[in-house]
Amino acid sequence: MSTRLSIISTRTGDDGTTGLGDGSRLPKTAPLIHALGDVDELNSHIGVLRSMALPKDVDSLLSDIQHDLFDMGAELCIPGHQVIGSSHVERLDQAIRHYNEPLGILKEFILPGGSPAAAQAHVLRCVARRAERTVVAVPAASLPQDGPRLYLNRLSDLLFVLARTLNRHVGRSDVLWEPKRGEQDKG
């Protein structure tokens, strides 16, 4: 990266547009700009989770994911630039298998919650799903490759598994959904 930001407030966005990496500009309401914002927000929320006490391997994995998401932002921002590919998606698939194996079979739906770190991982799962939806909404001409979409899909699955893993790490159980609970309150 040869360009470094020395001026943060350029005022170039005052007209309601945002600059892309190739110098072109898009309206801030464009689907691609929404996708960039959601990927950036997801990365920021991962930073919040990483500020908590985590197992070293989980923190390392999340660090790798943050770098991937930053690369994904570059891919979204520079037309024709491709960074996120099948090897990135496979790495997430491997992590899902690794962390899911000791959890056992999930027989009930679970609610977001438990430990603070697990609850934050559930927030991340939701933000990743939103980022995936906004990436899917980007016209194919602006984002012809599948890497970002597939990556975000797997990442949301991994974050669900990590939420369960983080609860287990601190001795907390998953928060199970009680399907008949609302009916009990009515009676």
**Separation of the first and last Cα atoms:** 64 Å
Give the overall form.
elongated
Portion in strands: 5-15%
Widest sheet: strand ordering: 1-2
The major sheet is characterized as:
2 strands, antiparallel
What's the total helix number?
Answer: 6
As residue ranges, the low-confidence spans are: none
Give the H and E element order: EEHHHEHHEH
Describe this structure in words.
It contains six helices and four strands; from the N terminus they run ββαααβααβα. With 187 residues, it is mainly α. It has a two-stranded antiparallel ribbon with strand order 1-2. A hairpin with a 5-residue loop joins strand 1 and strand 2. Helix 3 runs parallel beside helix 5. It is elongated, with a radius of gyration of 19 Å. The protein starts with 16 loop residues before the first strand and ends with a helix. The relative contact order is 0.15. The model has no long low-confidence stretch (mean pLDDT 89).
Task: Fill in the keyword field for this structure.
187 residues; mainly alpha; two-stranded antiparallel sheet; elongated
Short description, anyone?
Helices cover 57% and strands 5% of the residues. It is mostly helical and 187 residues long.
Structural topology:
Elements: E1 17-19, E2 25-27, H1 31-50, H2 56-77, H3 86-100, E3 110-111, H4 116-136, H5 147-169, E4 175-176, H6 181-186
Antiparallel strand pairs: 1-2, 3-4
Pfam families: Cob_adeno_trans
Catalytic activity: 2 cob(II)alamin + AH2 + 2 ATP = 2 adenosylcob(III)alamin + 2 triphosphate + A + 2 H(+)
Region (Disordered): 1-24
